[in-house]
Amino acid sequence: MAIRDVLKMGEPLLLERSERVTDFEELEALVRDMRDTMEALDGAGLAAPQIGVLKRVVIFGFRHNPRYPQQEPLPLTVLVNPEIEPLSTETASDWEGCLSVPGMRGKVERHQFIRYTGLDQHGNAIRREVEGFHARVVQHECDHLDGILYPMRIADMRDFGFEDVLFPALPQS
Ligand code: NI
Q1: CATH architecture, range 12-91+108-147
Q2: Which of 68, 83, 146, 169 is the residue whose CA sits 20 to 30 A from 45?
Q3: Residue range 54-73: average pLDDT?
Q4: How far is the centre of ligand 1, averaged over its atoms, from the C-alpha of 24 (Å)?
Q5: Distance 162 CA to ligand 1 centre (A)
Q6: Which of 83, 131, 141, 163 is catalytic?
Q7: What does the alpha-carbon distance between residue 21 and residue 31 come to, in Å, rounded to a whole number?
């Protein structure tokens, strides 16, 4: 088990585009570290570049997440080489946080309904149609693979602030 350091916004590597995975044998250790790190920090998701690995791998999922206490459980998912397709033009605006932007939250507009496809860590196909928070998490994590952090998507910077001010009831990171 290895909890890795999560790179913070300002680190140039977070702005890079990650490479597609071709060798699945080397994924096992990476996925294990990503999972340990995400769980240790109560993340809803984590992308490989956040621990300094520029590969198109994201993980997400939780039963109950103290950082997003009102959200339904998300199935623990490893998604490799993901693709996202919006299923309608409907969008929704909601608060997001990120382990690379600790202590902050911002309101971001995302597609409400998406289909995502990709592979699991063993190379098996994944294809899901999801909505709401699940769709939001997938869009947020996949953005990391293209070097995009959620603050870049905040339309009105008045919707950006410190977690302990915006949501004083949350456990503070
Ligand atoms: Ni993030």
Answers
A1: Alpha-Beta Complex (3.90)
A2: 169
A3: 93
A4: 23
A5: 16
A6: 141
A7: 12
Spell 116-125 as b/e; 16+ CB within 10 A means b: bebbebeeee
Helix, strand, coil percent content, the chain, rounded in steps of 5: 30, 30, 40
Q: Tell me the CA–centroid distance for residue 96 and ligand 1, in Å.
A: 8
Buried b (16+ CB within 10 A) or exposed e, 51-68: bebebbbbbbbbeebebb
pTM (predicted TM-score): 0.96
Instruction: State residue 172's pLDDT score.
Output: 67
Domain boundaries, the chain: 12-91+108-147
Q: Which amino acid is at 141?
A: E
Distance from the alpha carbon of residue 30 to the mean position of ligand 1, in angstroms:
17
pLDDT digits 0-9 by tens, 80-92: 999 999 999 999 9
Which range has the worst mean pLDDT, 61-70, 94-103, 156-165?
61-70
Question: What pLDDT score was predicted for residue 37?
Answer: 97
List, for residues 96-114, the tens digit of each pLDDT value: 999 999 999 999 999 999 9
Q: Are 47 and 58 in contact (CB under 8 A)?
A: yes
d(CA 89, CA 9): 30
**Is 141 labeled as catalytic in the residue annotation?**
yes
